[in-house]
Design brief:
The protein is of the alpha+beta class and 421 residues long. 32% of the residues lie in helices and 27% in strands. The protein binds uridine-diphosphate-2(N-acetylglucosaminyl) butyric acid.
């Protein structure tokens, strides 16, 4: 196991580059199973979640090659049995179900394990596949899916009690590409990662309309073919670096290779806190405000404020003037970072699905524990401003979704070192 030792107080400056999106890569890699032809996917970030996904594809029988951000997958012969030991490590492996069922008419997938960001059921995924004609049996921790009479298009409302589901929409969209007839998804997720998947499937020959809205229509086709595709920039990594600049850059800092329209809610929040963000093509130039203040955020489905950015924004509120509130309506339990930030001197109180932050606080380095991907990134951000050394244990959480975050931040002036725990 590794840990990250961050020496706080240095000023960030210069340009930091954003990688391809982890959450767009995962379903797109799964979608390569929909064809027996070769797919070439560019800008796949080198993080452990994409590595797990490639291992699953390979165990299923696909030929997989990876070289400097490019991944080539050729899934000629595919098994329907996913390997439990890898699948259990990553919740996103749930999105193997749609492509396997579409391609083979059957899938055995282990139920994803518990998750520290709260309860994460898959009822909507299963209901959607059932409405397309799948028969599902959940036994011994496995989801066994069979399609006795072929998948048939249907009109399906996917909205759950916490709103739309991103991977649920991805799963259903993938399954419907090869179903017989028209599938209509009402209450679909409109996240950019869903749109990227729809673009990928469209290039493969799928007929999809409405991706990026709440209603998606998919007209099933006979077969799909191989394609080349470049993954969209990671909007959450980009947002994390924008917040890093607002926390620790004394001079203007640039976050490069972004898609600004994916970042509106985050950029608007930074501006509301008194920071200047100037967009120039694929770059965002951030100048930290002289007297940064806090604000209120509430997470919601895209284009609202992303749940994957609320923890990082909390780190900024700690060092900003006034009372801020952070409400998560999507994952109401996603506050594992709060006690760790308190150890560093933050004044935060949690009330149900809300964190109330009183700032500004002087942060002090402390040994802290990473608990999930975004919580870990938050600890790194807080550590950039803390006095002295912060030791972040269980670094594997951050390596699941941030490509070389330590090297990237050191490139703009941060001081940190990776060490064996
Ligand atoms: N939900 C259900 N039933 C379901 C599916 C979801 O009740 O069958 C609920 C969830 O419990 C949650 C809400 O619906 O309250 C939304 O969850 P969603 O299904 O959209 O989450 P996901 O698709 O499993 C993806 C991202 C997450 C991100 C969420 C929300 C990937 C691989 N993961 O998860 O990313 O937080 O959408 O935007 O795309 C991360 O990158 O750190 C991360 C957790």
């Amino acid at each position: 196991m590794e840990k990250l030792i961050v020496t706080g107080g240095t000023s960030l400056r210069g340009t930091i580059n954003v990688s391809g999106s982890k959450n767009a890569s995962l379903p797109i890699l799964a979608a390569t199973l929909l064809t027996d032809e070769q797919c070439v996917i560019r800008r796949v970030p080198d993080v452990s979640d994409t590595n797990y996904m490639l291992q699953i594809l390979s165990k299923l029988g696909a030929e997989v090659e990876r070289a400097s951000g490019n991944v080539i997958v050729a899934a000629k012969d595919v098994s329907h049995e996913t390997p439990y030991d890898i699948v259990r490590k990553m919740r996103a492996s749930v999105c193997m179900m749609g492509p396997l069922v579409a391609r083979l008419g059957k899938a055995d997938v282990s139920l994803p394990g518990g998750c520290v960001i709260g309860d994460r059921p898959i009822d909507l995924h299963l209901r959607a596949l059932q409405e397309l004609g799948a028969v599902i049996d959940v036994k011994g921790g496995d989801v066994v899916i069979r399609v006795p009479d072929g998948l048939k298009g249907a009109e399906i409302n996917l909205r759950g009690k916490f709103g739309p589901t991103v991977l649920g929409t991805a799963n259903l969209m993938m399954a419907a590409t090869l179903a017989d007839g028209l599938t209509i998804i009402e209450g679909a997720a409109a996240e950019p990662e869903v749109v990227d998947l729809a673009d990928f499937l469209g290039k493969m020959g799928a007929k999809i309309q409405g991706a990026g809205t709440r209603r998606i229509e998919i007209e099933g086709v006979e077969s799909l073919h191989g394609v080349e595709h470049t993954i969209i920039p990671d909007r959450i990594e980009a947002g994390t670096f924008l917040v890093a600049a607002a926390i620790a850059a004394e001079e203007r800092m640039t976050v490069n290779r972004i898609q600004p329209s994916h970042l509106t809610a985050v950029i608007d929040t930074l501006k509301a806190c008194g920071h200047a963000v100037e967009i120039e093509g694929q770059k965002a130039h951030v100048t930290r405000g002289a007297q940064p203040r806090g604000t209120k955020i509430r997470t919601g489905p895209f284009p609202e404020f992303p749940t994957d950015m609320q923890a990082q924004m909390t780190a900024l509120f700690i060092v900003s003037e006034g009372i801020s509130t952070v409400t998560d309506t999507i994952f109401p339990e996603r506050f594992m970072h709060v006690p760790e930030l308190q150890r560093m001197g933050a004044r935060i109180e949690r009330q149900g699905n809300m964190a109330i932050v009183e700032g500004p606080s002087e942060l002090t380095g402390a040994p802290v524990m990473a608990s999930d991907l975004r919580a870990s990134a938050t600890l790194v951000l807080a550590a950039l401003r803390a006095k002295g050394e912060t030791v972040i244990n269980r670094l594997y959480h951050i390596d699941r979704g941030y490509e070389h975050i330590d090297e990237k931040l050191m490139g703009v002036g941060a001081q940190m070192v990776r060490a064996r725990a």
